[in-house]
Here is the input.
Amino acid sequence: MEHVILDVDTGIDDALAIAYAFRSSELNVLGITTGFGNVSEKEATRNTLQVLDVLGLEHEIPVIAGADKPLSGVHIKGKSTHIHGEDGLGNCGLPLSKRRPLSTEAANFIISKVKELPHQVTLIAVGPQTNLATAIKKDPEIVNLVKRVVVMGGAVTVPGNVTPNAEANIYADPEAASVVFESGIPVTLVGLDVTMQTLLRNEVVNEWSSVKSAYSDFLQTICNSYIGAYHQFDSSLGGCALHDPLAVGVVIDPSFVKTVPMCVGVDLGKGDTFGKTYEVQQGKANIEVCLDIDVDRFVSHFLQRVI
Ligand code: RIB
Ligand code: CA
Here is the structure.
């Protein structure tokens, strides 16, 4: 079993990634750290606790609140309520959870778990990388003790989704992404290069209506809302992208994707390309970039596990 920490900014695809991780016996989820991104950090924590409830998980799962702003201290990107709904979960109306987050901080939790299980912890970061960058800055020793970081973020060979050049998780805190990329930790980048191909189609979600449970209602509500939001931007897509679930999928079965080692930089200048992830020609490869994906095999696997 792979020990993992999920680092999330719980919107809809984060919720799907959490469901996928807990429904996959290959993974042992040590805890979930939260931060700003799709929603505020407080909302991401609230949403994460609600998702654990609707998943029907009875045991205690550590949820630890983290960054409420980027390393620079100034928010560049607003919340993504136009994609994830006012509450970040497609306005699904889940009741507040009775679960409580731990009283420690996300960065401290990451440091302590990595030290407790040296070379065994994989971090799956599907929001801005602020918590991980903070952990690295606080205790640089962890760089040699983390097994791997799988980041959902970036767009190395394709256009961005929040600007023509930048992907949302990187754009929200490019300094943090740069700290992580340059740290020396083995990083696998699951960017828009591959995630935009992983469509969850409208027809598939409509077939779920025969199944009746609180969990299935939740899945349908969030996926319909997410597909609707995607439709507004591009009516030809016919579905929504499984960004964050793919980062989980790559840990469960690395053969879903093909990676290429590259030196990847993050544009920190204040121009149009701010937050862009790009290949540094002739640089030393620091990242395994996912450039190819077996879409059908991954989407079927995700659906079998999550529904
Ligand atoms: O660009 C897609 C990413 O941004 C996903 O992680 C989504 O949840 C948002 O955080
Ligand atoms: Ca996310």
User: Anything to note?
Assistant: Residues 9, 11, 13-14, 37-38, 126-127, 244 surround calcium ion (ligand 2) (CB under 6 Å). Residues 3 and 28 are 5 Å apart (CA to CA). The radius of gyration is 18 Å.
